[in-house]
Design goal:
18 strands, single chain, alpha/beta, five-stranded mixed β-sheet, elongated
């Protein structure tokens, strides 16, 4: 690994610490380097807080470091426009930095290239493209927000080694261990909505809340995708404990039913989604549901936790931006057990969905894989 790459990797790791709190801004990290040594660092901690470049300069000031003798490594092109905070290019100029090394350009079409060009016009040395692929992966969520009208969607699955999410009788508690379940609750803490299918609602009667110790933030919305609304809402935890935070995605006909009217009386939202044509069986347009979630409820992240058919539907409609797989060191061997993905009829391996590995680690005994669809 080159010296430049090593410093940018450190900036990337810093940036990841802001994941979930910077939205709708991207995650960004920065380090100040002098004589081949990191002397100050910072990252964008939350929306409305100082950007990474400013945070690194504040760290330098606290440590008595003179930025005029440093190079700044930053994962994303510095902003050159006034937003919630002043432009970072102005802070860089005021600090007297002589050199800026940028990971990837700003993907915002309205400002792309402006920060780098402005700094060059002011006499700074500017280099770009250091670990650009990794820096671009870092802002995959921001790219979705910039180029689509929907949230960044994460599919979470807990499976056995043979790819099962439940026995043939529907039993699934617990496949993964405590450490994995704690990580899922951490994900819920920064996702605006948790999405399940009607089968999961009936089988598990879940709460879909973040239950981390000491957590006091907002709870995610609960979204249930089902062509058939529940007949007996009084038995459903979601409808008893937080109906105003529960949304059903269903067909137009079902949204006009007496079941929908009963749910509306409880404060539940029932959204009619159009059907997609051209499938073996008609499917709800899940993309439209996601777009409404972002437009009307401000959701920037969604966490999909449903069964195999829901997971397959989101993948088939190109709506999975990231897969987070928790694989327990267990084998069911149940031929009729429920698979992580279902609902397709394929004849060759060429039809398989391909993914690329982003991260691999363990949560307790469970293997954790973070993957994204191949572009």
């Amino acid at each position: 690994m080159t010296v430049d790459a090593r410093f940018m990797v450190r900036a990337i790791k810093l940036a990841e610490q802001g994941r979930g709190r910077t939205a709708p801004n991207p995650c960004v990290g920065a380090v100040l380097v002098s004589q081949n040594r990191i002397v100050a660092q910072g990252f964008h901690t939350a929306c409305g807080q100082p950007h990474a470049e400013v945070a690194a300069l504040l760290d330098a000031r606290a440590k008595g470091v003179d930025p005029r003798h440093c190079s700044l490594y930053v994962t994303l092109e510095p902003c050159n426009h006034q937003g919630r905070t002043p432009p970072c290019t102005r802070a860089i100029l005021d600090a007297g930095l002589p050199e800026v090394i940028i990971g990837c350009p700003d993907p915002n079409p309205n400002v792309a290239g402006g920060g780098a060009a402005f700094l060059r016009s002011q006499g700074l040395r500017v280099r770009q493209g250091v670990r650009e692929g990794a820096c671009r992966d870092l802002i995959a969520d921001f790219l979705i927000w910039q180029t689509t009208e929907r949230p960044f969607s994460i599919l979470k699955l807990a499976t056995t080694l043979d790819g099962k999410i439940a026995t043939s009788h529907g039993h699934s508690a617990w496949i993964s261990g405590e450490a994995s379940r704690r990580e899922v609750h951490r994900l819920r803490s920064w996702c605006g909505a948790v999405i399940i299918g009607g089968g999961t609602l009936r089988a598990d009667n879940p709460q879909l809340t973040c239950r981390l110790a000491g957590y006091s933030g907002p709870q995610p919305l609960a979204v249930v995708v089902s062509r058939f609304l529940p007949e007996a809402p009084q038995t459903c935890v979601l409808l008893n404990e937080r109906p105003e935070q529960t949304i059903f995605w269903t067909t137009e006909a079902e949204s006009r039913s007496t079941r929908a009217a009963r749910l509306a009386d409880l404060g539940v939202s029932v959204w009619s989604l159009p059907l997609l044509s051209g499938w073996t069986t008609d499917r709800l347009d899940l993309g439209e549901g996601l777009r409404i979630l972002r437009r009307d409820r401000g959701c920037l992240y969604t966490l999909i936790e449903g069964g195999g058919h829901l997971a397959g539907s989101f993948f088939a409609q190109g709506l999975v931006d990231e897969l987070r797989l928790f694989q327990a060191m267990k084998i069911l061997g149940d031929e009729e057990g429920r698979s992580a993905f279902a609902g397709r009829d394929v004849t060759s391996m060429q039809e398989a969905w391909e993914l690329r590995l982003m991260e691999r680690r363990f949560f307790g005994p469970d293997l954790y894989l973070r993957l994204r669809p191949k572009e």
